[in-house]
Design brief:
With 262 residues, this protein is an alpha/beta fold. α1 packs across α6 and α7 crosses α8. α5 links the parallel β5 and β6. It has one domain: NAD(P)-binding Rossmann-like Domain (Rossmann fold, 3-Layer(aba) Sandwich), CATH 3.40.50.720. Helix content is 42%, strand content 13%. The chain has a 7-stranded parallel β-sheet, sandwiched between helices. The longest helix has 27 residues. The structure holds NADP nicotinamide-adenine-dinucleotide phosphate. The site of NADP nicotinamide-adenine-dinucleotide phosphate has 31 residues, from α1.
Length: 262
Amino acid sequence: MGCGPPIDAAGCTALVTGANQGIGRGFVEVLLERGAERVYATARRAETLPELAALDPERVVTLQLDVTHDAQRRAAAAAAADTVLLINNAGIPGSPIQAERCMLAASSLEDARLVMETDCWAQVEMCRLFAPLIVANGGGAICNIISIGALFCLPEFSSYSMAKAALATATSGIRAELSRDPVLVAGVFTAGVKTRMSAKGLDPKTMPVDHAREVLDALAKGDEDIFAGDGAAALRDDIRASPKVLEQRLAERFFTAPLSIE
Ligand SMILES: NC(=O)c1ccc[n+]([C@@H]2O[C@H](COP(=O)([O-])OP(=O)(O)OC[C@H]3O[C@@H](n4cnc5c(N)ncnc54)[C@H](OP(=O)(O)O)[C@@H]3O)[C@@H](O)[C@H]2O)c1
């Protein structure tokens, strides 16, 4: 069900953060497949950019962008001022050491602060830079890749859930601020995509390109809240039906069979 102005990938100019692998790379490939005019494919490691450019040297413009780096964010906004679709995808799960991702067990909150900086503040900063450009370009969309983990706390990834929940709330605020402009502000509550970030043992079924297709289909309908990937819609329904039951189940798993990314 669409609520905002729809946006079509065909003919659009898009910018994708964290485009060098996983979900971000899937977006670049599907944007090209669907006829985007230009795709700014950005990544923090310069050595990953040539492979992205090789996907389509005519339409892919690569930029080095560490989303936590203010000067690089500003340079990207200057270089990609014709963007109408921002896909805010870059993110981190936090330390490979489980205790460091927890609230009480962590040796300090240093890792949690990095997760908050990367998964929330950096995305908000990107919105702050690109929203005025998108408006000046006649309208378009901001698509924040959040996580189904924003809707409850995964206790093995407390800092990640916290940052994603904050991003979900920020996305609503940004949507309100832009509600008189022709800009779709979408939050994607992703689950179950097969990438480096997938927790061990979960065996997610959705490939990044299929996730990108789901999301771009939803954007083309003007959807603001998008549940994409393996099990996302089922989890959403579970959470809505009985949030406390889910919380207790996850607390039990935390001690008996915790999720791991190591
Ligand atoms: N996979 C899932 O099932 C799932 C579920 C829910 C939400 N998500 C979200 O989807 C997004 C993409 O994750 P993924 O699954 O594709 O994981 P991934 O394969 O680990 O990819 C993460 C991407 O983000 C980049 N990145 C991290 N920190 C960055 C920074 N400071 N600046 C720029 N780029 C940075 C990484 O670059 P490097 O290669 O340099 O590390 C990489 O390209 C994340 O926001 C994640 O939270 C994924």
